[in-house]
Amino acid sequence: MSINVEFINNPARFLDPYRFRVTFECIAALNDDLEWRLIYVSSPGNEHLDQELDDCLVGPVPIGINSFEFEGLSPDPSKIPEDDVLGVAALILTASYKEQEFVRVGYYQNTEYDNDAMKETPPQRIDFDRLVRDINLRPRVTRFQIKWDVQPQTAERAAAGAATSAAVPSANDLDDTVSETKSP
Question: What would the pLDDT profile of 79-89 be if each residue is shown by its tens digit?
């Protein structure tokens, strides 16, 4: 499954919702929904501070190119340690099928003040209304093999489709322990 994420409002104010379009290609019809989750990571050393900003279900998913727009809330400032507000954080989009994560798309987000004077001399208390975020558009993509609900081909279906398509492996042929990491 190939995936493309296009941010609609980048850069944006820190407190603005995240808006983006997800386009993906599906090579076999999926009977159940895909679950998409947006997670903000302000402190990489403490996952208890991760904030799930939103999630959505998309499906059932037909064969072909599919697209949807996703809007997620901004992070709750009260849940971000003051030392972690400015600078780099991570934004992660995950997709799961039948509670099995199959892709994770991670972005770096830089947060800073909207003017040079505040960048050079930040106020003692963080002024969230003056912060802007800029998401680096070079994601880190990690794919995981999962057990899809692909049915093994019958001899009749295999003969009919052999001339036009490659065989799709049975879910039983997949190894749960394999994962692949790509960086564009």
Answer: 999 999 999 99
49 three-class SS: helix
CA 43 to CA 49: how far, in whole Å? 7
- At residue 171, what are phi and psi to the nearest 5 degrees? -60, -30
Q: How many other C-beta atoms are found inside a 10 Å radius of the C-beta of residue 163?
A: 6
Work out the end-to-end distance of the chain between its first and last CA atoms, rounded to an integer number of angstroms. 15
Look at the pTM and tell me if it is higher than 0.90.
no
Residue 121 Cα to chain centre, angstroms: 34
Residues 101-134: tens digit of each pLDDT:
999 999 999 999 999 999 999 999 999 999 999 9
CA-closest candidate to residue 77, choices 5, 123, 115, 126: 126
Structure tokens at 41: 């990571």
